[in-house]
Amino acid sequence: MTSDHYDHRRGLAALLPARRHDDHDDHDGHDAGAANHHAARPCCDVGGRRVHDGGMPRIVFIGNPNVGKSSLFNAILGARARVMNAPGTTVLLEEGVYVHDGVRWDLIDTPGTYSLLPLSPDEEVAAKAVTGMDGDGAPDLIVTVVDATNISRALYFLATVLELGRPTVVALTMNDLAARQGARIEPAQLSRALDGVPVVEVDGRTGAGAGALMDAVGAHLSGTPLPHGLTRVDVDDVDLRAWVEGGADARFDWAAGVLARLDMHARDRVTVSDRIDRVLLNPVFGVIAFLLLMLGVFEATTTLAGPAQDWIDGTVRGWLVAGVDRLFAIAGPGAADSWFHSLVVDGLVDGVVTIGTFIPPMGIMFILLSLLEDSGYLARAAFVMDRAMRCMGLDGRAFLPIVIGFGCNLPALAATRTLPDSRQRVLVGMLVPFSSCTARLSVYLVLAYAFFREQAGLVVFMMYMCSIVLILLVGILLRRVRFTDVRPEPFAMSLPPYQVPRIVALVRSVLMRLWGFVRGASTIIISMLVVMWLLQAIPAGAAAGSFAKVDDVHDSVYGVVADRVAPVFAPAGFDDWHASAALMTGFVAKEVVVASMAQSYSIDTGDEDEQQQGEGSLGAAMRASFDESSGDHGRAAAIAFMLFTLAYTPCLATVAELRRQYSTRIAMQSVGLGLVVAYILAVVAFQTLRWVL
Amino acid sequence: MDTSYPLTVENCPLDEDMAITAIDVDERHRFRMLELGLRAGTVIRVVQRANFGGRVVARGTERIALDGRTASRITVAPAAG
After folding, report:
1. Quick check: A387 and B25 CB within 8 A?
2. According to the annotation, is A70 in a ligand binding site?
3. All domains of chain A, ordered by start, with CATH?
């Protein structure tokens, strides 16, 4: 292969780094471009299995959106599936190793796409993976997932994939729904109509047919026929746009021919889904139904999850601490007083419990997401909310995570994965932390009762209004600065028929997602909590005590850091170490901000609720501190403090989830954005309000 | 029928067979429509009106949701037969 070859690359290929060309390209391209209108023949005449890095054949799954591709992929791989970002992007790919008859295959699931001519980064990743322009070379075999209820469009897409000339197996999904519509497709008949391209009927929701599909993959790695009427293309030497657009009519003609051979005609009649849509997509009732559903999801992730979270935080924590104590008691009488015991209880156990408390809302969110996705409603939700979210340049589905964020940001971030466009996913992921979660409410309540007694309710309400305005403004800002290529696109989406979700598949999917969360978030949460413990355990001076035996947190390194940080907040009116220490603790979790304040003032608030805390001795101590630090504008400083709490990093778990879902860079950008917005907001609020409060 | 306004997916009657005559969107999105199965000559039926002019069109067993603006840019004519 000479460099001249690369110079000839056009279209999408020319934009990409030159891919490796090893021995298998010899049989890839030798008859590229040759017309093949006359006879079906093996198009992938490989002499044996191609091997990639690591020696594993690479199997790429591709298909239109909402055809059950990811469900099928997860049914095949189970917990072995690993979600990752496509190199250099935030586009999610799933990958995993599958062992078939002792041979390991590398399976890759791509984002759903209608075309190999991409309109978004997600579609581009799918197109690159299937064409081999992703730098890994052409796949050894392509599994094209074909939706039986959208057969003509699926055949058009299949034709494009087949023209790539790689071995291809068709996974036929949703045939049960097609049967209900009187349009069932016999796999063997379809295979004959495709001149021998293997077709396997599968059900991603139950996993039925997955084994047969993988057997078919194994049997056809050496090649599959190119059907009559399709022309093979060499992606290395073709203008992608010209190829895809130029061949469209021929592909539709070919698809029509296949449908004729299947003896399928447009079986057009009113379906059950049409009847359901008359309500759920109705201009009025559709919006009401959507809002009720959102309310239900919000309630489930907050109210329903609350008791389970309290149980884990109280009872389970008690069990774990008791267990640790028992183990240390075995080690010796003094062991329970050692720094190591303190590290295990206040660092590790605290970390495990923190992760545990997020499992109920995350689990509920994952269940609801699976229900919404599998039932086919989520595509409708995007349609119903399209116009409302369009003003922010966002997909209608972005409404869901932002609403959920007002309950808890963590499941809200999980809900961003329903957005098919990776840029929107990241943009919404960066907006979610500005949704004022219920944990922040405790801070607002205590401060509102401490400083505004009679107007406490109004102040808390204003915080929620500020949260909404902040989401809108930061959304506009991010779109102008960071996501300039995110713009409203015409909405044209295939609506999948409604389906009843399958319990087994649902449980499997929820458990896999929960495990992914625990595995991904635990490292950062536990290590950060250990760092926090360490800062509080190291005495700042000789008189402060010994390691892990610092009575007053102000005398620890943590207190020293809080002291150093405090002057930064002078322009916001709370140049006070109690406040900065509470904000530092609030980085871990907003639930502990009030407790941290009480601890720093050495006030035992016991079983007092937020109102009692605000109106009691804690409130009095805070008023004294804020009045002193703000030059007797304590109320203005309190508002500034609440606004800072609203806008900066919600909690450590959110940072861990941002990192897990997107990248370390995006997690850091989100933290930075939150801090900058929070600081500006606090300073502007204090400097303005001190004239009136 | 008032012919002063072109018949489009947005304003055509529900549940009647219509043939697409033209799709007036930019080139890359027009091609995407084509790949979705919507192109000049295709016979469709509008089966659902949604908010802000949004429409669901049926092409055989397939259902495609279109926003109001896009729906108003797809001109149609009653299908023969």
Report:
1. no
2. yes
3. 3-14+45-263 (3.40.50.300), 271-401+504-537 (no CATH), 436-486+542-693 (no CATH)
